[in-house]
């Protein structure tokens, strides 16, 4: 008789005779483990899914009518008439509701004269924290002369370009004061109003490499690439339908009197629908400004629409 097997859930084995061999059969006791029954009692019929029973539902946040952010003050039009240039009479008004340069960014650029030019001299100027520059004489907007070699401070030019932007920097008049030394306030060689004509920036660091200025007296006519500022895109019918704005021109070249150079030109998109465009002749500028490019060249266009809108039109 074999020993008793006292495993869990096993009975005493029973010997059954089947010829010569004896087979032990084990009958295992069936066991079933059921999880304990957990009963939940709802205390309130207003209980919502995903929240604890004892935590009351939170109130919805209040909606506040927030006004849209104010535009950049450098691009905000000033509602004043432009001052008349000398010689036009005190009672003559040039324009109304046209943008004027913001006096906040009016700054005098300080410079020192240079005696020579060249690649090695320009490299030494940049290492010393100065930018090699040139001032030209501008008579009728086409020919230059009376060249003066100067050097300006790198930090000052970099700050102006960073605050205004490259296009706005090249369309703004500045007072240039050439001194024998940057620290000598009494020894002034020349003080003149200038317009930045060209600036070269480093491709990696955006550091100014050289700057070209043009003298801008009151009687001068200057060719200026005036930047465009697009407004009204939030209420444009075409953009609300799902179309997009195709910007073709960022600047437009005008021949301007030195006293009537606008800092930018407003382009109104509030009435443009899909397929419509604005030409250079449609820009609202001062009448003394002469467009150098063709009037039929487009500035921007509302292009494309949603697929659902295209199916509806078909």
Automatic annotation (TrEMBL):
Chain ranges of the Large ribosomal subunit protein bL25 beta domain: 222-305
Segments traversing the membrane: none
Q: Which GO terms describe its biological process?
A: translation
Q: Which UniProt keywords apply?
A: Aminoacyl-tRNA synthetase, Ligase, Ribonucleoprotein, Ribosomal protein, RNA-binding, rRNA-binding
Give me the Gene Ontology terms describing cellular component: cytosolic large ribosomal subunit
Q: Which residues form the Large ribosomal subunit protein bL25 L25 domain?
A: 111-213
Q: Which GO terms describe its molecular function?
A: 5S rRNA binding; aminoacyl-tRNA ligase activity; structural constituent of ribosome
Matching CDD domains, A to Z? Ribosomal_L25_TL5_CTC
**Which residue stretches belong to region Disordered?**
1-28, 48-100
Q: Which domain of life is it from?
A: Eukaryota
Name this protein carries in UniProt: Ribosomal protein L25/Gln-tRNA synthetase with anti-codon-binding domain
Identify the species of origin: Prunus dulcis (Almond)
Upper classification of the organism = Eukaryota, Viridiplantae, Streptophyta, Embryophyta, Tracheophyta
